[in-house]
Specification:
Elements lengths: L2 H9 L5 E6 L2 H9 L5 E3 L1 H9 L9 H14 L4 E4 L7 H14 L3 E5 L18 H15 L5 E6 L1 H5 L1 H13 L4 E4 L5 H10 L5 E4 L11 H7 L3 E4 L2 H20 L11 H7 L2 H25 L1
Parallel strand pairs: 1-2, 1-8, 2-3, 3-4, 4-5, 5-6, 6-7, 7-8
């Protein structure tokens, strides 16, 4: 079964899917070990961690696909990948989708911002014409073939043109074949209710950014409203940044980490990244190599 079809099975369940945002393989593995059934890459997090830059469209398609491909291969659970605008027109979207299928992604998010795009909770966003993004969604649906890749259509029109236009665009994107709908950055519970009441059977995405524009409702509250997916895209990134800053500050000030108690035990970390497993494999084949070497000596 493809990763996309695994995600479709989860979408068929009545419960909302809580999905943490990750930006590297380690974060994805930690999420999997904690029991999350799906992870999603954050373009914000990948831009910050790989380039040290804000989510302002600095990442290229090649850089993004390289990052999300490695993350997808590091875990056995489905990965939803933020693929920004598709990095061009419908032709570019076709290539991105075909690459996504080859990399084993479960789903991609395609947004209707102008390129270069910005984080959905930043000011100064601009959107392309609705008809242009409809074409991109149709191209994505065609390009995935029978793989099962889930196409999530995202609109950023709320901030630019208002909620009514965002809903109008959402309807058009679903009509074009999108499997799920992501109206970015609604600004109140009332707006979330309006979105949920407009779209009946369409899986809806909520995006909770701590300190962002959307109210920080719980997964349970969002499920009661009618949402099917809730992303927490920056939670891990913000947590890691705070802990790492505190650790480095203490190391700088005291010249030691003896009194810093937020470190994972070194042995436990080895377990997380699979050191015992790879050591066993190494020893298995090292033994075979030694046996072959000895046989070679006798043959002389």
């Amino acid at each position: 079964m493809s990763s996309g079809n695994k995600l479709r099975e989860l979408l068929d369940r009545p419960e909302i899917i809580v999905i943490p945002g990750v930006y590297d393989c380690l974060g994805a593995k930690l999420a999997e070990k904690q029991g999350f059934e799906v992870v999603a890459t954050s373009g914000f997090g990948i831009a910050a961690s790989t380039l040290g830059l804000p989510d302002y469209g600095f990442l290229t398609a090649t850089e993004m696909l390289y990052s999300v491909g490695r993350i997808a291969q590091s875990v056995s659970i489905p990965l939803i990948a933020d693929m920004d605008t598709g990095y061009g027109n419908a032709l570019n979207v076709i290539r991105v989708i075909k690459d996504a299928v080859q990399l084993g992604l479960a789903s991609v998010i395609l947004e209707d911002q102008e390129w270069p795009k910005k984080c959905g909770h930043f000011e100064g966003k601009r959107v392309i014409p609705m008809t242009e993004h409809v074409g991109k969604i149709r191209a994505a649906v065609q390009a995935r073939g029978d793989n099962g890749l889930v196409i999530i259509a995202r609109t950023d029109a709320r901030a630019v043109l208002g909620l009514e236009e965002a809903i109008r665009r959402g309807c058009a994107y679903v009509e074009a074949g999108a499997d799920a709908l992501f109206i970015e950055a609604p600004q109140s519970i009332e707006e979330l209710q309006t979105i949920a009441s407009t779209f009946g059977d369409v899986p809806l995405v909520a995006n909770i950014v701590e300190g962002g524009k959307t109210p920080s409702l719980s997964a349970f509250e969002l499920q009661q409203l009618g949402f099917k997916i809730v992303f927490f895209p920056l939670t891990a990134l913000l947590a890691v940044t705070k802990i790492m800053t505190a650790c480095l500050r203490q190391l700088k000030e005291e010249g030691t980490t003896v009194n810093f108690h937020e470190l994972v035990n070194f042995k436990d970390f080895q377990e997380i990244i699979g050191v015992p497993e790879y050591l066993q494999i190494e020893q298995q084949f090292a033994g075979q190599e030694n046996e072959n070497r000895e046989m070679g000596r006798w043959g002389e």
